[in-house]
Task: structure prediction
Amino acid sequence: MSSGISDPEQTPKSADQGTKFWNDPAKRALLFQGILILTLGLFLSEIISNTLHNLEQRGITTGFDFLGVEAGFGIIQSLIPYSEVDSYGTTFIVGLLNTVLVSVLGIVAATFLGFILGVARLSDNWLISRLAATYIEIFRNIPLLLQIFFWYFAVLRALPSPRQSLEAFGGFLNVRGLYLPEPIAQDGFGVVTGTFIVGIIATILVKRWADKRRDDTGQDFPTGKAGLGLILALPLAVFFVMGMPIEMEYPALKGFNFRGGMTIIPELMALWLALTIYTAAFIAEIVRAGIMAVPKGQLEAASALGMPVGRTLRLIIIPQALRVIIPPLTSQYLNLTKNSSLATAIGYPDLVSVFAGTTLNQTGQAIEVIFMTMAVYLTLSLLTSMFMNWYNNRTALIER
Result:
């Protein structure tokens, strides 16, 4: 029969369990994280509830139904077929593709120029080194927006009219843009394209085989020449065998403007030049820091073996410098993609200008439009980071 008196060992045992839980860093961290997540959830729920209530009071509809409504405005550059009768959803795709286009072009050109400037910055030639240093100090210290304005208003807008166009190699340059011959594929061109793709795959396989062969035997293989043969010479040979299945459409002056061919609008040229030149200055310093991080003994050893400077850079210095170069290089790629949103200042039809600008003003769907725009830049940044992290792991000298 119970005496009504509790066991004296129960209370100390319960207190001891509570003390153990609180003194356990892992359990304590889980508790704090749970509290934080719950607090953030309540905070976001309150914000969403207040926003929907305020929108309802003002008679503002929400949702993405507006994407199916006719846009009713033109866009000066579109990589897909587009007209004024297309929907706002199509304008979103047009702006997205234009943003991706200038970002990819800028990343490729800035990387190429930045690596050249970074190597030139360390050149033993005083003139080359000073010229590279001058370029870097000038262009990285001038705001990007001012550089965009310079190329657009001071350079491209100062070009002659269409009737006085600058002509070279079948192309024409004037105040309205750059007009180039446009290649039009004919029957059989798909075979050439397929050969080109096969050449790229074969080059990758040859490169892997050559690296393994060099590691096993110490013998080098001319991968560069083999790659040129597979990627350029082989498709070119197939191109001639197939009877050159391509036809060039040349631009021609008709009335007050050129018709036919391929047109590169001045807004794209100005934005691409500014992004490339500005970002290349930062990439050059990253490359210089990466090369300087390689122990000097590596260069001295290569010199003692009689290796040419170019081969030393390609096989010894650059592979070791990449582990220092890639992380900050990723940040520059992300900055270039986000800086492309400055295109709205000169009217280039990127995502911000077309969708977050014109579409937002006409529909009034600010929340949806801004959300979609931010989601695009977030996605592009995450994809870029994922690719660069993958490449960084592949080039790492130490397995992780």
DSSP finds twelve helices and eight strands in the chain. The first strand starts at residue 166 and ends at 168.
